[in-house]
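Sharing a chain and its predicted structure for anyone who wants a worked example. Both blocks are below, sequence first, tokens second.
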Amino acid sequence: MKRFFLLTMIFCGFCFVKMQSQSNINIKLNTLTYQFSDNNVQLAKLKLSNNGKLAFEPGVIFAYEAFATPATSLKINMALLMDKAGKFAGFPQFLIRFRLFNAFKHSMTLGLGPAFYFRQTWANITGYEANDVYTDDGDWQFRSVWFSGELEYNYYLTKMSNLSVSLNLINPESIGLAIGYKYWISKKSNKRKRGCISCPSFH
């Protein structure tokens, strides 16, 4: 786990030193989640389906993004939420993002990279079945992964802001729908001309 954090921080530090471009901050509210597996779905408290796979897991995701090229960027997400079992959970997530399309006020990006998922332990919940998804560590459970992801859609609101909607892997088994607001800190162009969603011809 320590090696995971060290390598990730070195990578992010290097990228941010190299990036002298546009950047933005983003805040989203996590809403609905869907769990792919059948592991402990019966523990869901705010479930929206009979089998517990679809549930409400309220939370917030903070993010910072900086562009390296017109179509690629580095993004850091930090999520804090109340999981389906009523426990505190979250993750830091480090993504390299690629633009899939940009059409006037609309754009979509795909982000891939490592994440570190954590939650208050479920081991003390009646009916909990242990599995290898999370590692136990006292009152906490955690899991580090090298490949997590985010699919994000942005819609132009003003010159400096966007409506932002995304699908995030909020833990190794679940995907969550998040809706929020993106604010552009800087739109300073690099030597090469680049674009941004806040300008109709620029993303």
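Comments welcome. The helical segments are 2-18.
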